[in-house]
Specification:
InterPro entries: GH
Structural class: mainly alpha
Order of helices and strands: HHHHHHEEHH
Number of helices: 8
Strand order of the largest sheet: 1-2
Largest sheet: 2 strands, parallel
Helix content: 25-40%
């Protein structure tokens, strides 16, 4: 849905919730794994009332690339999490998490998702320098967390999963 525009998203409003329901039913009710949207290209595309009202979605992610999206008045309406050592409602303040903490979080979360039998994919790998200065979990291939991410992905492909994507991945 990224890059298709807000009209496309509005026409396919059930897509996020439908997929979240499928994931939740696969995980089971006690997995402890949060199901989230992937965000879109602009603030108005990332957060829709239908998604906020979807019981299967635990997190509605925000991706915003428009300069106007970063104004306080736009962001203030959306309360979310950042990767600092402060409370969620105090973003961005404090100190970015140390690489060791970030790596431990990546290992833990990837392991939990893999153990649940759901294909694990860390979708935010960047070929260029991470523009967010370590505040988030975008990872460049030369990032200090790259080896942690790579090892988590290599571990994930050795585990049984509920879905088989090998046809499309040509593994």
């Amino acid at each position: 849905m990224v890059g298709k525009g807000e009209d496309y998203i509005n026409t396919h409003m059930n897509w996020q919730c439908d997929h979240a329901n499928t994931i939740k039913s696969t995980l089971g009710s006690n997995s402890g794994i949060l199901v989230m949207t992937g965000g879109e290209s602009w603030m108005t595309e990332s957060v829709k009332s239908a998604w906020l009202g979807c019981a299967a979605l635990d997190v509605v992610a925000i991706h915003a690339y428009g300069v106007g999206d970063f104004s306080t008045s736009n962001i203030l309406t959306y309360w979310g999490a950042c990767y600092f050592n402060t409370e969620n409602n105090n973003c961005p303040a404090g100190t970015p998490l140390p690489t060791s903490t970030r790596n431990n979080n990546i290992k833990t979360w990837a392991s939990q998702i893999t153990a649940a039998g759901v294909p694990w994919l860390y979708w935010q790998v960047l070929p260029n320098p991470d523009p967010h200065y370590g505040y988030d979990f975008e990872i460049r291939v030369q990032d200090p967390s790259w080896d942690t991410l790579k090892n988590a992905a290599l571990d994930a492909i050795t585990k049984p999963v509920a879905f088989d994507y090998t046809t499309w991945l040509k593994l």
